[in-house]
Amino acid sequence: MRTRLAIKLHSLLERHFPERRVFLKSDNDTRFIRLSSETQVAAVAGVAVIVGWTAVATAILLMDSIGSGNFREQAKRDQATYQERLNVLSAERDVRAQEALMAQDRFNAALEQISAMQSELLASENRRRELETGIEVIQTTLRATMKQREEARTELAKMNQEAGSGEVQMAYATDPAQMNFMTEALVRTAMERDQIAADAKDALDQRDELELEIQLMQERSDEIFRQLEEAMVISVEPLDKMFRKAGMPTDRIIEEVRRGYSGMGGPLTPISFSTRGEELTPDEIRANTLLQQMDQLNLYRIAAEKAPFASPVNAVVRFTSGFGTRRDPKTGGRRMHNGADFAGAHGTDIFATADGVVTHAGWQSGFGRLVKIKHAFGIETLYAHNTKIKVKVGQRVSRGDHIADMGSTGRSTGTHLHYEVRVNGKPVNPMTYIKAARNVF
């Protein structure tokens, strides 16, 4: 059965591809190559496969070339858009930084004013107490003098009554010294009375002037308090908003900074004007509240220095790739991109975005020359593809320190910085921190 099928197949092939012979002639001999039907079919099939593969490959290359051209144009437009946005954000950041500096200057000036006002209030309170004591002494003396005057009047009336009978009149006539003494005593008493009344009037006038001065000082103090409270709102709210936009719980962050707070001052001591155990006045309570807010502001600023609220590059760069899934520039497949890419000139300065300790400074596969910095709150930042590294492992750095130069080492298609932010080992979008700080720094 198989032989018959093979014979029929051979006959069919012979009909379309008859046996052929290729003669090879030389000077001394002639030979030939026999091409059977099966050989011819195999050769035709091979040629067809090669031609088909060539056509398909050419079509794929053309389509990829066209697609790559469109992708490059779209990438250029995206780069221009991102660059424009970065320029706008940079301008806004500079404006907000200037506003923050002005608010800080107003805050310092207001703090100096309230310190001066505290001294004036203490001096005024001491003067008021001295005047109150003087007024009490004057009033006591005045009451005693008025009592003496009434007694003298009573005695004089009694003497005049006795003089009417003629008995005392004779005594007066015979004792002029006693009459002179009584007259002088009455004159002195009248003069002392007038002087005491004048002193009392002066004391009352001084009291009224002092009360007016205290009222004016209180109004100035209220104005200073209002300015300080407004300065606190202007200073604290942007910082609180910045932390919340970055997904950082402010209560936990502030408490952590408070526990480890050292080397930058200390908690502010509450104000108390009383030394006799009296209850605090509304102004004292208000001042203590402001001092607590000032302490909180200091803690916010310390926390902000420890978190990466800054851009790693200050030069003109292009934002070329963001956080998330993207088309891999090497393979063309879809892959997760755990950071943000900033393309710039070769050797562009790269800066630390927060205070921290360098945990890696050297080569790492894929990243090239890499710098890792460990920060507070479980945050770590990575700076990859550098051409030169400026720091060493274990070195402490501050925000704005020059740590590396931009390059294209490792798995890279060109000069750029690959910047990552990791929280407790998990990559997060670094632009969240950069954008959250644009209204503060």
Per-chain topology:
Blueprint: H1 2-16, E1 20-25, E2 30-35, H2 37-163, H3 167-174, H4 176-245, H5 250-259, H6 282-306, E3 318-321, E4 324-327, E5 334-337, E6 340-343, E7 349-351, E8 356-364, E9 368-374, E10 379-389, E11 396-397, E12 402-406, E13 416-423, E14 426-428, H7 430-436
Antiparallel strand pairs: 1-2, 3-6, 4-5, 6-13, 7-12, 8-9, 8-11, 9-10, 10-12, 10-13, 13-14
Helix pairs in contact: 2-3, 2-4, 4-6, 5-6
Structural write-up:
It is a single chain. This protein is an alpha+beta fold. It folds into 2 domains: 107-306; 311-436, Glucose Permease (Domain IIA) (Distorted Sandwich). The chain has 7 helices and 14 strands. The protein has helices at residues 2-16, 37-163, 167-174, 176-245, 250-259, 282-306, 430-436; strands at residues 20-25, 30-35, 318-321, 324-327, 334-337, 340-343, 349-351, 356-364, 368-374, 379-389, 396-397, 402-406, 416-423, 426-428. Strands 3, 6, 7, 8, 9, 10, 11, 12, 13 and 14 form a 10-stranded antiparallel β-sheet that branches. Strand 8 (356-364) and strand 9 form a beta hairpin. Helix 2 packs antiparallel against helix 4, helix 4 (176-245) runs parallel beside helix 6 and helix 5 (250-259) crosses helix 6. The longest helix has 127 residues, at 37-163. The radius of gyration is 50 Å and the shape is rod-shaped. The protein starts with a helix and ends in a 5-residue tail after the last helix. Mean pLDDT is 76; it is low at 166-174 and 270-276.
